[in-house]
Amino acid sequence: MEQSGEGSEYSARMSSSRETPQEPARIAGPVAQPSAPRERPPPNAWDAHAHIFGPPSKFPYTAGRGYTPPDAPVERYMALLDHLGFTYGLLVQGNAHGFDNRARSMRWRAIRGGCVAWR
């Protein structure tokens, strides 16, 4: 069965193996030294949306992506959860990896939480 519609066009762009003429723009990363909240979250609170990126040598970015993120390793995210007072975190697949879920799914167990995947 052939897919049609806007979603399949997006999927085709993201999974394309064609080379891009130049590297997409780099985007800003997470705040390096965020302030601790004045009020701590309640016990067992969740951070409801985070991305883990890189390193691109192990988890390459997809051709045709619109941006290039800085490395955002799981260890830095774990430290952020502790700093902000969250018990759990939810990883969401960033589109710089296209539909290659390895960067997120290989590390989600380390974050005391869960992950969202789609295809």
The strands making up the biggest β-sheet line up spatially as 1-2-3
The structure class reads: alpha/beta
How much β-strand is present in the residues? 5-15%
Question: Regions with pLDDT < 50 over 5+ consecutive residues?
Answer: 1-5
Largest sheet: 3 strands, parallel
Q: Count the helices. How many?
A: 3
Helix content: 10-25%
Work out the number of β strands. 3
Arithmetic mean of pLDDT: 78
Radius of gyration: 16 Å
> What best-fitting shape do the alpha-carbon axes yield?
globular
Q: Give the termini separation.
A: 15 Å
Strand and helix order: HEHEHE
Describe what this molecule looks like in 3D.
There is one protein chain. The protein is an alpha/beta fold and 119 residues long. It has a domain at 41-119. The chain is built from three helices and three strands; from the N terminus they run H-E-H-E-H-E. The chain has helices spanning 6-14, 74-84, 102-105, and strands at residues 46-50, 88-92, 114-116. The protein has a three-stranded parallel beta sheet, covered by helices on one side. Helix 3 links the parallel strand 2 (88-92) and strand 3. The longest helix has 11 residues, at 74-84. The relative contact order is 0.21. Residues 1-5 have low confidence and may be disordered.
